[in-house]
């Protein structure tokens, strides 16, 4: 027995010695096995980058959501537990869930029973999920499911925190922004991927890099004391800051919704731009969709402003006019015979077929005469005219920072094609090309490249990765020509003979050109016929002496009643958007009189006390941002014409004392927010009526300030109105 036990001891000792020396057992590294068993790794999820407007207001971001899991394994419930942790009643669970997630009761039940059917002696299914229907569950729905489950004694349901893409503005520039959604990759991992628009174009930049945390646990999974955690932080995706102005975009969306309801057109498009920089302030189309739910998304996935082409119709005539003026072939008082014009075997006619007799070229342009364009072409030469259109950028991509831009087709094979091009038929353009070309007229001959990306910012370092600046293009016309074209465009709105009378604004002079283009048939040659089967448009700018906004509106095939015209929905869109936007931008109304406005001088680099005195002397109200000292920047910029009493912001260094925001416009508040860096939160639109912290408070960037805004028509509540009315009645009665 001694020899037997002695031999076994020696054998065991030798085995232990071998394991200690080699670190292996049965050919496997024990250290690696221990590391695999007790070393854990937690994924630190990165957030997808935000998309914000020019003022930093949110357009798209990640938000908290939940993923639904049903625990099926009975082993999940400990013995003698008071409440089961696994699904006990499959039928009852399926019925409950069908009330909250977009999945039928039978499919939910089948999902759970089919998962359990895969159980074997060696393998037990622990849980199951419900695909897309069980993901992206919001907080309210999660709480509702939990509450219902507790009330109805349904067990085994768990929720895991997750992220989903959030679009707080709903149907808002959706064909520009696009959407992102979760999908399963080759590694069976669920990731958020941009599928359309900016979300797709900038998907790589918006997608963050997950981090991780390594740590060690004991047998039961608890973190071992004094264990060092190795953390690799997550890197969130880049922030894309657009040139889009959320307020102007909302003006566009609201106006389009009203016109959609009233006229139910087949299509609509609106683009609003700053002609001095090329920045796009708003871009939208109809039909449209909600990027969060994809409700309303049709088979069309194209951004019509960039990826689709149209025949522009008579809006093209402003560029024909510009070419004739630049070539010194424009004589506004010269006369021609309107009605029809024949070249070779092709005869073109004015819109009323018979014309208006012998009229001047100026009246011909105001009436949108096709024949007047034909005679202008004779004067300057049709090939010369085509070269001007190329100079305006037609026939080639503008190079906007958006994908799949179309180039359009500039017809130039024979004289008849060049003739029809002069009044916008045959040749095709993109709306963004029309915007670029019109900047040359609105901006004193300086043609600006349109763009929608303002900055790309790394949120992890707060550094700007890309900073897009205005880019001037070579223009085919001079400052003098641009000014003359604007004056003639204004006359189409103010003249009795003008086709643009409906586009007039009460406070600003508008210049622009109407258009009515035929719509090519989808199959075969030719154009659609019949009332309303046209593409109606207007390309306009205001104020005409110094245009601050350029807007292109297209309405296709509106449903018109007797007495209505195709220009009606177009003018309703244009005037609503332009009037609201110009006032939001604090552009001084022209009827206020030049004598009431003063050009703001430059106060940058001056001492704040000196700058304040200067601003007061000019009749303005200075607001100091910071503690004083050297002025770093001012808003508005020098040269801006302001009315007496207007606010001027002066940025210095140090902590900021809150002003009285009462009566401030939303744009002025946003400018104050950007210069001060304070956490100012806005509720509503219009003008400030309440603020959460009082005037004179000295706060840091971490202290939030909430401002309540109301539009002018909302300043009085119904009760206040009733009280005012009672006072009036008492006065009258007394």
From TrEMBL:
Positions of the PASTA domain: 593-654
InterPro entries the record matches: Beta-lactam/transpept, Beta-lactam/transpept-like, PASTA_dom, PBP_dimer, PBP_dimer_sf, PCN-bd_Tpept
Superkingdom: Bacteria
Database matches in CDD domains: PASTA_Pbp2x-like_2
Pfam families: PASTA, PBP_dimer, Transpeptidase
Subcellular location: Membrane
Entry-linked SMART domains: PASTA
UniProtKB keywords: Membrane
Family: Belongs to the transpeptidase family.
PANTHER family: PENICILLIN-BINDING PROTEIN 2B, PEPTIDOGLYCAN D,D-TRANSPEPTIDASE
Protein name per its UniProtKB record: PASTA domain-containing protein
Organism name: Sporosarcina quadrami
Record lineage: Bacteria, Bacillati, Bacillota, Bacilli, Bacillales
